[in-house]
Amino acid sequence: LLMPTFSFSSVVPRHPSHPTAPSSPSSSTARSQDNTESSCPQNNNRRRTKVLQRFSKQNKTKQKENDAKMAIGGGGGDSKAIKEIKFKDVWIDAVAGGASGALEICVTYPFEFAKTQVQLDPKTWGSKPFWACWKDTYHQFGGFPKGFTALYRGMPPLIIFGVPRNACRFVGFEVANNFLKLHAEGLGTVQRNILAGLAGGVTEAVLVTTYQETMKVRLIHDRLSPNPRFKNTFHGISTIFREQGFSGVYKGLGATILRQGSNQAIRFPTYYYLKSWFCDGPDGNFAQNGPILGIVQQIFVGATAGAASVIGNTPIDVVKTKMQGFEANQYTGVVDCIAKTWKTEGFGGFYKGVGARMGRVSVDVALTFFFVEKIKGFVKSYL
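Structure (tokenized):
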């Protein structure tokens, strides 16, 4: 019997690139393997997992970019929400910085008192240890309580201005740091912290520190004079402002900007660099190493950062103090003050009071960073 013939190739669809050629055995085998793999639930799950991981990674990257933009109030998202987040972060930095400033001043002011005396009267105190002026001042005013309170003469201006000073410093640092993270991605962490610290120091110098330091230096200088003019701190402030005006209380602005800018440009990167050693990163928490050990480590890191800034910029501090004393009129400017100090006192003249300043600043910076991180954590826990 004659049976009708059928071409197998007419039934099996041909590959698009070879419309007339029959499927080769190797291609058939490959397709069968593909079909086998695609039909295997395990392989399907593996491919699905890889796809989900890729999308998850992309979403996390985009989220980090949005968070960085929102931190400085720019790019993406709802503008109202961005402004609220920015204001909240700035407010937390301001509260933490201001509160830490008031607390550390109460603890460290006697060191500041001794340092200023040594710099203003080097003939009397220059050859003595800084604590000798505590002893002499204490006995000069008849012991406790007047002798004790005399060590805090000139402190009220620091308390009054210490809160906004530290607030400006930490707000300026955080805003500049976030800005650089977004717009200067090529900078390393240390370089970014140096620039952000410089910005924080300049901010506090211009807005608060120059006026505050002028008042402090002149109140202490008046107290050491044979015939003090000021009845109390507030009488001294009002008298200085009335007699010398706005320009008078802003004497030494350039020197103060140099001092505070260099101070913070040294302190912030040193603190966060050393913190990375103990906490596996600058954003870590010392408490992860234990409650007691964490506090010891944090105080040590802060004190080291403070000591580094003292070594780096005490000459600037000496020039600033002389430019803000009652004898400031003998200097025509910062350069003239440097030249006359070098001529009359030599290299050692630029490190007058370094011992007292080292003690005060080390404790100051250690307490400031300690209080700032604790207060920020406390405030954030209730927001």
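The mean pLDDT is 77. The longest helix spans residues 79-120.
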